[in-house]
Amino acid sequence: MGILDRFRKKKKEDEKPKAVPRKPSMYSIEPKSLTQFAREACKSRSSVRIQLIQTASLIDILKETLEREYPSLDSGEVFSHAQNGLTLRCVTCGTQFNQQALSILYLAGKGTMQRAIFGGPNVATLARGLCPGCGGSTVEATFDPAKIKARQEAIKVSALEAVGVPELVSVCPGVKFQSSLDVSPNEDLTCFVAPEAGGKGMVTAYEAGTSNQRWSLSSPSSESCKCMFVAPERALILSKKSEDESVIQLVNTTDGSIVTEAQGPKVYFNYGAADPKKGFFVTESSYDTLLMIQTGEDKLEFSTYECGQIYGPGPMIGPDGKCYVIVHYRLYRIEDKQQKQIMPGNNCICFDPTGKVYCGGGFADRSGESALHIADIKSGDISEIPYGREPIDQIALAGQGRLLLANIVNEIYAGRYPNAVVTLFSIPDRKKVWSLEIKDLKPWREPVLLSVPEEGWALIQTGKLLKQISLEDGKTLRVLPKQTQEFVEARWLESKKIFYIARNPELGYRKRAPGLIECYRV
């Protein structure tokens, strides 16, 4: 081969396309890099570029990292902070994705909905991991831990509030408690379900203000059992027999003997209300069906009524002896197997002695207007007082023309709205008198436990304290330590000037472990 031929061959070889080593994309983040980002972001505000379709993985990794960093917070609450602390911005067109978009991206990247196409065109585009604005797939993800840090700090600070404040005075030693605390009409007896070995229960009656047990009756389950006074000397006990059946017993409360019993339909044990004057009891048989029981003349007569999906607080009995229930954001009265619409109402029901009924408005995500709804039961007149966008989840009487209003922390939105607020509200003035912000209360706990306007105080809970406060100005009068994870309920006995506090540690998601019931004197 001549020199010219060798030159031509070399030139042809030079003209051949050469393989170029593929550089890793700056926009593709490996799980290890996401983990490293999460570690840094949980300590201070940080940003990273990712593919939209990686959003679910990033949220999960942030949640796992936050759980290790903040072990005192609930799993659901941590997830809310992981999602709500995250913002996404398209690097191509600058579109900022809202929380609804983040929720869609999370669902699209998880489980059976992974890569699913659902909803409108924007939702379908997001589900494919693309920006609806420009079709790009790369975003800048920024996580800010400011809110979860503030939440953790609030829990620490709460424990210091008790310094220098007198504690509540115990009346008698505490006893085992599981659920269903009730007080007899004459306030001489308390009745509740106590836990027993093997998950069984014991319906137990005590002389009020003492540790003297009057009687007890065994129950197959401590969780699937409810007791409630339906007359001065009668209590109703409902126990689970099977998935679709219950046992209903009418008990003589002087000695615990069973007066009569019957087999009934399925029962929900979370809610229930009784009218001891008429021997009437109402609860839920399913999510959309009421179970109503009449106990007059020591007989058990029960019926069911399908009313539509029942919202919390479940069925209640008004001063007129009728059943009231919230169904799909409306308050209804059940009369002669008919539903009569009273007024709008989202979250709670409260009656006052003058014949008025109150309901709270608003939504946990603050997506709509809130209001205090008011109806006169006799005249049927209704009115409402605007309340901004803060939901009213609790209403309690607080004196002439005054109410205590409060919101309950919802774990889904705890990242954006982590605080509970208790407010004394004047109805005639249509304004707030004072407000207390509770920064360390766990999701699903009721801030207001008791309101005793005739004594001028209320009992509220924070994460670390039970606080007796003045209704006049909201100042703390006495305190009692509590555990952050506890579920707490309370009952006031006016004739004896004592109140009961029942505590249950948390057992899994929104479940209550066996706890303790205690009695205190004001």
Question: In short, what is this structure?
Answer:
By secondary structure, the protein is an alpha+beta fold.
Q: What is the helix content?
A: 10-25%
Low-confidence stretches: 19-29
Query: Roughly what fraction of the amino acids lie in strands?
Result: 35-45%
Separate helix tally: 7
Q: How would a textbook summarize the main sheet?
A: 4 strands, antiparallel
Termini separation (Å)?
Answer: 113 Å
Whole-number average pLDDT? 87
Secondary structure class reads alpha+beta
Q: Biggest sheet, strands in spatial order?
A: 1-4-2-3
CATH class annotation of the domain at 184-306: Mainly Beta
CATH architecture of the domain at 184-306: Beta Barrel
Rg calculated over all Cα atoms? 29 Å
Strands, count: 36
Dominant shape: globular
- The CATH topology annotation of the domain at 184-306 reads as Lipocalin
Descriptive overview:
- The chain has 522 residues and is of the alpha+beta class.
- Among the domains are: 31-144, no CATH class; 184-306, Beta Barrel (Lipocalin).
- It contains 7 helices and 36 strands.
- The strands form 9 sheets. A 4-stranded antiparallel sheet has the order 1-4-2-3. Strands 5-36-35-34 form a 4-stranded antiparallel sheet, with no helix packed on it. It has a 4-stranded antiparallel sheet with strand order 6-7-8-9, with no helix packed on it.
- A hairpin with a 2-residue loop joins strand 15 (280-286) and strand 16.
- Helix 3 packs across helix 4 and helix 3 (55-69) crosses helix 5 (99-108).
- The radius of gyration is 29 Å and the shape is globular.
- The N and C termini lie far apart (113 Å).
